[in-house]
Amino acid sequence: MSEVEVLDNQELQSLKARIEALERELDEKRVAISALERANKQLEDKVRASEVTEGPASLTELEETLKRLVFRVAMILQAEKCVFMLFDKDNGELVASKPAFGLTDEEVKKFRVRATQGISGEVYRDQRPVILYDAVNDPRTVKENVGLLNIHNGVCVPLVIEKRDEDTNKVIETKPIGVLHVFNKRDGNVFIQEDVNLLTRLSKNAASVIASAAMYREVLEEKEELESIIESVYAGLLMVNKSGRIMQMNASARTMLGIQNGDVTSRLYEDVILQDRVKEILRSSLEESSEVAEEVSVRLPEDEDDEKIYQVQSALVRGDDQQVIGVVAIFNDITEIRSIERMKTAFVSTVSHELRTPLTSIKGFISTLLQDEDGSAFDHETVREFYTIIDTECDRLTRLISDLLNVSRIEAGRALDLNPKPVTLEPLIEKVVSVQRSYTNKHELVTDILDKLPVIVADEDKVDQILTNLTNNAIKYSPKGGEVRIRAELDGDLVRISVSDQGMGIPKEHLAKVFDRFHRIDNRDTREVGGTGIGLYLVKHLVEAHGGKIWVESEVGKGSSFIFELPKCPPQFAEEHEQLIAGSAGQGGSMQPGMPPAAMN
């Protein structure tokens, strides 16, 4: 036998041995694929069975299945990496998804490409597999960063969902959802057509699991987003199914109904809700399939004195077949609305009384004077006293009407008009005190000016109204008399003025509300004093219109102090009165009211 024949025989034997090895490897892969297909079939049967008896498989189960799937694909194809990409219709990209084999989470995050670009886009669009022999130098992969991902070669096949006819089992519709990749054949080899065939078969089984997991993720994200929205809404929301179990209760509903336990889902509403009327609304809606809208008063066990009023509206929840599956109740807190309505009703009654009182007085004295036709019934002093009372009552009416107009202006969102000019506070305080002394003989009105007060920029009439209102209140709410002290001092660039009395004081729970419109402390003593409930509301807005602030300190039975601070010049008038501010600072507050800016230097 010649030497050439021996070599040919050796090459033939070597080739035959390699073919036998490839056939054995192919048989092993077929066995592995068959096992994977059986496992996948078992999983699909299990998922269908669980959907009937226990609901859909959990996301964790699906992700574990995906993790095993990409691992087995990588092992069968002898690849170093395996990853699938799904089409994101919102931005038109193919995006790598976890779990992946051989890629870090950061690498998976970076692996994305537009569906119109790259080898991934080509496979997705054409729905045909492709072998990558030299990934780094292939011009189609330039958008996919294969160098950064350490990819040398690979097989890419489309992930396609097939819809089959139930009778014939023929494919009647296909829908691409992404691409399945295996990269870097082990031991330096390259992928061949047989690998393409294997991966194509595997991708058909993988596509359904991947699609299910992706759909599950979307549904779960939407559910979590919806739950977050429901949990954060201001209105209380409670949903109960037909069997009476709570399906959803947000934080507002738990707070409104005084439920301390965080998670009450799946519990019977009758075991969770304490309020009988709320339970009755739910029971009536469920049993009679009716919708209810009514107001419910609720007192929580930890705060029996604080009654809340909720508007409860129930609505039936229906399934796709329009059958009732439960009821949802919405709770809106209308306590403040009802409180304001009550206060407005009381306010109208009070204002009517406040208007009638001076009008009755004016009418009485005018009628008395008119009856004296020849002017002989009353002496000059008595007539003058009548006129003085009439004048005072007219002023009282004017103030009340002015207050009402100012409240209307504030509620309409229109700022209080200020007429700023230089104001010297000491004579203004003395004038207010002098006027208020004429209204009482039981009180001692004292002024306490601690510092030389500067000239300030303010609306003199509005400051007069602030001081008059606070001083008049101090007199009214200390009906047994005592000292009323008006104290003024400097605090840096602010003037602080307080009006204190030794009267009935304000209960602690009302301190935060005394400046609210129409708010009045309703007890026997305050009802005897009277008042409209808008005075302090106006005072607060007048102070704040000047860039200041006001607060109250009080103790029941010992009296109250209303303290307010005004800046030397409100910020909105700083530029206009810049010279006044400088002149006032330089002369220690000795400016006279009405002095023109040119005279300040």
Detail the topology: elements first, then pairings.
Blueprint lengths: L2 H51 L5 H18 L2 E10 L4 E9 L3 H6 L1 E3 L3 H9 L3 E3 L21 E11 L6 E15 L7 H40 L3 E6 L4 E4 L1 H6 L12 H4 L3 H13 L4 E8 L2 E16 L5 E10 L1 H37 L8 H32 L9 E3 L1 H13 L5 E7 L6 E3 L1 H17 L5 E10 L2 E7 L23 H6 L5 H11 L3 E7 L3 E9 L10 H9 L15
Parallel strand pairs: 13-15
Antiparallel strand pairs: 1-2, 1-6, 2-3, 4-5, 5-6, 7-8, 7-11, 9-10, 10-11, 12-14, 15-16, 16-18, 17-18
Give structural notes.
The protein is an alpha+beta fold and 601 residues long. Helices cover 45% and strands 23% of the residues. The strands form four sheets. Strands 3-2-1-6-5-4 form a six-stranded antiparallel beta sheet, with helices on both faces. A five-stranded antiparallel beta sheet has the order 8-7-11-10-9, sandwiched between helices. The chain is elongated and about 145 Å long. The termini are far apart.
